[in-house]
């Protein structure tokens, strides 16, 4: 028995210039650190300007674009392999999609430009990245109240983490152990250094040395995505952050066990806090080094320095007068307003300012302390600290959302 058949209607090919541009743009934005709600806003805006009806669904590892026609939908999937945040490339993508949306550049040329930007090699030499890791760790040790011994130990650990990332990160199967190996080496070295420098606070050195790997910013971004109803992306991102915490924590625990077997580690002592002027120096140096780590343009360095100082001192003022959670929220408002003003004034992505500013406020170190409490069988302390992580993350998100009301962003990126 034969059945009537209808001719198969082939889906439109994705090499139509406008669709190809949207696919490449969404993949590039997701690769270099754009959150789900901003990515979706950019793609929807660009599609609308190009005369397309596009529905976007973004996760940390993929983007779905559904192009609507008069008769049906055609959906395209792009797999995303996220790498480090690259503010310089995001700035160029921002100018690129605006040029295509305004008609100053054709979509076909835009696709070519995006591919050229993505293929550009990293301009920062490996030794500079390693140096930046070590110096930033030393600066963070100052913020945590460390003395000279803690600063030296954390700097050395930061250097080792930078070397580890440079060589381990080249192969995917090795890169998956990066967090565990970093935590293991950090705790092992922190304990062994007591033989050279005497008793100090290894806990400060370990957290400061690992600060670049702690996913505090990921937690804040995931909270923002959840607050903007990007539930899938936010849930996936926060799960990834939790896994990073577990890998680092297990590595630290393993290193502690080994070092306690090999040597007799003296008891930790309270570090001697340095003068307040050291905080100013540390904030200045770390903000300049963030230009390197985030691959930003040096022409934007002044804004990043201003954001770091604003975040540092507004958080201190807020915590002193309003308490921890409301103080962090106040600092988030200040950083968010500065970012939106920067975007309005110079027509560049607000992320250039908000990212380094929020990095001073994110709860990564607090989350790691929570994990340490659990591993030390301090369940009550671990739960209490974990709750603080959630509240700090929520406070930051509320601060950013309030900033968008006080100074509405004029740009979608």
- Tally of DSSP helical segments: 18
Query: What's the overall average pLDDT, rounded?
Result: 82
Total E-strand runs? 3
- SSE ordering: HHEEEHHHHHHHHHHHHHHHH
Strand order of the largest sheet: 1-2-3
Q: Into which percentage range does the β-strand content fall?
A: under 5%
- Helix/strand-derived class? mainly alpha
What's the main sheet like?
Answer: 3 strands, antiparallel
Which residues form runs of ≥5 with pLDDT under 50?
A: 1-12
List the helices and strands and how they pair.
Layout: H1 17-31, H2 36-49, E1 53-58, E2 62-68, E3 73-79, H3 87-101, H4 107-119, H5 126-143, H6 148-168, H7 172-175, H8 178-192, H9 194-197, H10 202-209, H11 216-227, H12 231-262, H13 276-293, H14 301-322, H15 324-346, H16 351-359, H17 364-375, H18 379-406
Antiparallel strand pairs: 1-2, 2-3
Describe the overall structure.
Helices cover 69% and strands 5% of the residues. The protein is mainly alpha-helical and 413 residues long. The chain folds into 3 domains: 17-119, no CATH class; 126-295, no CATH class; 299-413. It has a 3-stranded antiparallel β-sheet with strand order 1-2-3, covered by helices on one side.
